[in-house]
């Protein structure tokens, strides 16, 4: 169930279209070929997602007994095809096998389940014990990972620019959080509401990584996709919440285009109105609030953001100012007029977003 009149799943990828577009124009066919195939895969899956939204799709049933305190995971192998879900290779409770990609996907689904359950009392993506399905080895050298409204899908990467997409646990958490948003605020995937959709996935993806590693806000790297870029790439990750615009500066990928403040907000018709670019602004606000409060970021700042995502007041077409205003309200209601409220208010001021 959502807070905005029903679930409308969207096709969401971790690598932004503008990155693959640039790679597709590379002179080296070893770089352009996989990028072009990845864009074709994405276009096909995006169209399929739209058709499924129109005609409807079977809803996955939760485990027997309803919401559970344990995940219900199934990993499939597409065998480098585009056929979903593929062949089942690992089920819940089975032992790890020899395929490291399968094992990482299984662990990442579990880490995501654990953060949402133990920090926020949420039972899986839909809060009703939804089984967590994932397909690995999708396509040939597929340079992406995505949530298609029903399951996770991971490519192996081209090993020139991108490595295996199961390597960073925050990528897994990011994509699954699109499912949480789908079942709660159901934010429209365009413009500022789309950037908020992307930012929330980055926020909770990062928190899942921090929770898994037991890191405080000061210890965390606040990078999204660290370990995903191949050694030849001049960069550390796909995005930086601590310093948007600094994740990479590469002769092939170009420079990270994310702004950190509204002063540099990007107006574009590409990428659904720049959803992967302008998400840097709310990302930075979250980082600033979490850094100011210290400790474990999922405990206070994460709780405030979760309260807004699931509270029922966040509209599907929300702007940054709408979301910021609700975080201030949530901070006041949960913690009173203390450090938490001041940290949240100041974080939005620092990125140039006014609260109402």
- Which word captures the global form? globular
Distance between the first and last residues' Cα: 28 Å
What does the main sheet amount to?
Answer: 6 strands, mixed
- Strand element count: 10
How would you spell out the order of helices and strands?
EHHEEHEEEHHEEEEHHHHH
List the strand order in the largest sheet. 1-5-6-4-2-3
Query: How much of the residues is beta strand, in percent?
Result: 5-15%
Q: Which stretches of 5+ consecutive residues score pLDDT under 50?
A: 51-60
**Average pLDDT reading:** 91
Account of the protein in words:
It is a single chain. With about 350 residues, this protein is of the alpha+beta class. It is about 40% helix and about 10% strand. It contains ten helices and ten strands. The strands form three sheets. The protein has a six-stranded mixed beta sheet with strand order 1-5-6-4-2-3, covered by helices on one side. Strand 9 and strand 10 (about 255) form a beta hairpin. Helix 1 packs antiparallel against helix 2 (about 30-55). The radius of gyration is 19 Å and the shape is globular. The model is unreliable at about 50-60 (pLDDT under 50).
Question: What would a concise description of this structure say?
Answer:
The chain has 356 residues and is α+β, with helices and mostly antiparallel strands.
């Amino acid at each position: 169930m959502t807070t905005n009149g029903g679930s409308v799943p969207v096709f969401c990828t971790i690598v932004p279209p503008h990155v693959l577009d640039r790679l597709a124009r590379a002179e080296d066919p070893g770089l352009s070929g996989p990028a072009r195939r990845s864009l074709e895969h994405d276009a096909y899956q995006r169209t399929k997602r739209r058709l499924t939204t129109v005609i409807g799709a079977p809803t996955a049933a939760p485990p027997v007994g309803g919401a559970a305190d344990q995940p219900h995971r199934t990993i499939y192998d597409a065998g480098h095809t585009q056929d979903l879900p593929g062949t089942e290779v690992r089920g819940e409770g089975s032992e790890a096998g020899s395929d490291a990609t399968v094992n990482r996907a299984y662990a990442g689904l579990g880490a995501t389940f654990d953060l949402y359950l133990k920090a926020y009392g949420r039972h899986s993506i839909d809060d009703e014990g939804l089984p967590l399905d994932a397909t690995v080895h999708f396509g040939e050298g597929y340079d992406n990972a995505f949530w298609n409204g029903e399951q996770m899908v991971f490519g192996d990467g081209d090993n020139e620019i991108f490595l295996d997409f199961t390597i960073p646990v925050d990528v897994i958490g990011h994509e699954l959080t699109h499912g949480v948003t789908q079942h709660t605020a159901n934010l429209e995937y365009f413009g500022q509401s789309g950037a908020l959709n992307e930012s929330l996935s980055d926020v909770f993806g990062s928190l899942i990584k921090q929770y898994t590693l037991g890191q405080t806000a000061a210890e965390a790297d606040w990078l999204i996709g660290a370990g995903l870029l191949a050694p030849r790439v001049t960069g550390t990750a796909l995005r930086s919440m601590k310093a948007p615009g600094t994740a990479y500066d590469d002769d092939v990928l170009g420079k990270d285009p994310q702004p950190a403040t509204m002063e540099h907000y990007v107006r574009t018709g590409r990428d659904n109105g720049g959803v992967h670019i302008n998400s840097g602004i709310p990302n930075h606000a979250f980082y600033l609030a979490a850094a100011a409060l210290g400790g474990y970021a999922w405990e206070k700042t994460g709780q405030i953001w979760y309260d807004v995502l699931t509270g029922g007041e966040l509209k599907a077409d929300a702007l940054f100012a709408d979301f910021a205003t609700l975080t201030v309200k949530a901070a006041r209601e949960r913690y009173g007029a203390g450090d938490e409220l001041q940290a949240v208010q100041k974080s939005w001021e620092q990125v140039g977003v006014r609260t109402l």
